Amino acid sequence: MPRYKLTIEYDGRPFCGWQRQANGPSVQAVLERAVKAFSGEEVAIGGAGRTDTGVHATGQVAHVDLEKDWPAETVMGAMNFHCQPDPVAILACEKMHEGFDARFSAIRRAYRYRILNRLPPLTFEKGLAWHVKQPLDVEAMHEASQVFIGHHDFTTFRHTRCQAKSPEKTLETFSVRREGDFVIAECSSRSFLHNQVRSMVGTLRLVGEGRWTADTVREALAARDRKACGPVAPPDGLYLTRVDYRPAASDIASHAEWHARSAVVEDDGEV
Fold it and tell me: Residue 111 annotated as binding?
């Protein structure tokens, strides 16, 4: 049974998140509906990360197994046709080796957060960026973001309903820069806790407004207390931009090991 890797883009505004749910439309359900429409198969599509309600993606990755050995370009074209009119698109499709898993084979996930930092209200960017009127000190925000890099207990910056077994994560990169009226925050890690990125960005806004310093952020992180977190940023500006994987040869060699420990590997949390 061939396995296909899908690279996916979507506007998260109409959805209750990536994961299929009974209380509203989801990205996963749209994709599974598209597969059934062209192939007649009932499938369960596995994703690399569970984006939360209203969160977008420009580089989500998923995998799907199909009984028929379709050409990858046929799968991509048929799914794009049947995903419409929902704002979901398959950007790339390729056949993968046995054992590839969009979630467990991932070695890095990258997120971008967009803040439109201007006095006038949002028009074209409504629902696609966080509107912050007060001028932000981007240099101070970037300096404070470096506090998060490394291996830490991120209890302060995760949702109280986060299901991860451990609050410890290793943040590889975090940067904040200005592009015209936009403030762009980008970070990467093997995996994230539920609401971790939005919690960190909301806290960095306090730094940008001069209400907190990098030392305040450091103290909040060390507190390991959710009440020490700044206000959580809304989902509007958050995008899953990239999921990285190890080379196929390494993935195949580690296949047995990953399956043996899959029961204890944490999911990438909703962010």
Answer: yes
